[in-house]
Specification:
With about 160 residues, the protein is an alpha+beta fold. It is built from 3 helices and 9 strands, in the order αββββββαβββα. β1 (about 15-20) and β2 (about 20-25) form a beta hairpin.
Length: about 160
């Protein structure tokens, strides 16, 4: 790879998912990345006053995008970034989805670094060119409660706060 091609690769919004020390690089950067972050607000109606909003808990962040895995021999294929052919890429991501593999998502251009799991993954082979088109949604992996006992303890603590 010559220096100009290397610079072109470095400036793209490269998406990498790292599982331990094993990186998975999406060679073709997506045109649209959707980041969804929200709170679970609820509203309460008070007589003679109206409606007020209680701030809820923060929901997990979700990232989604679509793209394609180029076939070997395509001018988009880059074996130095991801040497897997399209079918192997889709099988690996399906395997990670089924085993709930936790990744570290890295998108340096947009300063996105997120500990996440694959929530949904779809793949299709529509045009018989050998390319695999995919849609993926990642969900933030947060440290939750470790057992039913701690869940009950947290619930009791919240009830005490209310009264």
């Amino acid at each position: 790879m010559d220096f100009n091609n290397y610079l072109k690769v470095v400036t793209l919004p490269m998406i990498t998912m790292i599982n331990g020390f094993v990186p998975f690089v999406f060679v073709i950067p997506p045109t649209d990345i959707k980041v969804k972050s929200e709170f679970s607000h609820n509203t309460v109606s008070i007589l003679d006053f109206g409606e007020i909003t209680n701030k809820g808990d923060r929901q997990c962040v979700r990232l989604s995008w679509s793209g394609f895995f180029p076939k070997e021999g395509s001018h988009h294929y880059n074996a130095t970034l991801n040497a897997l052919p399209p079918i192997a890429c889709s099988e690996y991501l399906r395997y990670c989805l089924n085993n709930e593999t936790v990744f570290r998502l890295v998108i340096p251009k947009y300063a996105e670094f997120l500990k996440c799991k694959i929530e949904t993954f779809e793949v299709s082979y529509p045009d018989h060119t050998g390319d695999a088109y995919y849609k993926i949604t990642l969900i933030e992996e947060r440290d939750g409660v470790s057992s039913l006992t701690t869940l009950i303890e947290k619930g009791v603590a919240k009830l005490k706060e209310r009264f």
